[in-house]
Design goal:
Blueprint: H1 2-50, E1 55-58, E2 62-65
C-alpha cells in the first residue's frame, strides 16, 4: 500500500510543478501589464502627438508629419519622408519647397515690353473669294 501511495504522489509532482510555474508566469505578466498601463498613461499616444513632431491635420488627408509643402513629404501620420524619416524638415539637404508660380498683374509700360509675340505680317487664314459673299436677309 505504501508503494502505491508513493507512485501516486510521484505522479502528481510534475502537475504541481507545472501549476506553480504557470501561476508565477501569470503574476509576472500581470505585473508587466500594470507597468505598461502606467507608462502609457504617463507618456501615451497623446504625449507622442504633443511632442515636437510637427503633426498637422490636413483636410481630406488627415494627420501629416513634417512640412506638407515639401515635395518629398510622405503625406503620412507615421512617416515624414523617405530621405529624413525621423529628423526635422528644416535643414534637411533633400528639402524641396513647393514651386509657386507668381502671377504678374502689372500692365507693361510700352508695347515692346509686352510678353505677347507680335502678329505675323501674313495672315494664316485663306483669303475669301468674291464668289462667296454673304447676303443680309
Amino acid at each position: 500500500m505504501l508503494i502505491v501511495l508513493l507512485i501516486f504522489g510521484l505522479s502528481l509532482v510534475p502537475a504541481l510543478i507545472s501549476a506553480w510555474i504557470s501561476l508565477r508566469a501569470q503574476d509576472r505578466v500581470q505585473a508587466e501589464f500594470g507597468r505598461a498601463i502606467e507608462v502609457a498613461s504617463q507618456r501615451g499616444l497623446k504625449a507622442a502627438i504633443q511632442r515636437d513632431r510637427d503633426l498637422n491635420y490636413i483636410e481630406g488627408l488627415g494627420y501629416v508629419i513634417g512640412d506638407f509643402s515639401c515635395q518629398m513629404n510622405a503625406r503620412s501620420p507615421y512617416l515624414r519622408c523617405a530621405m529624413n524619416p525621423c529628423g526635422p524638415c528644416e535643414g534637411c539637404q533633400f528639402y524641396e519647397p513647393p514651386v509657386i508660380k507668381e502671377v504678374v498683374m502689372a500692365v507693361p509700360e510700352t508695347a515692346s515690353a509686352c510678353p505677347i509675340p507680335p502678329m505675323p505680317a501674313t495672315c494664316p487664314l485663306p483669303a475669301f473669294s468674291a464668289a462667296t459673299t454673304f447676303s443680309a436677309s
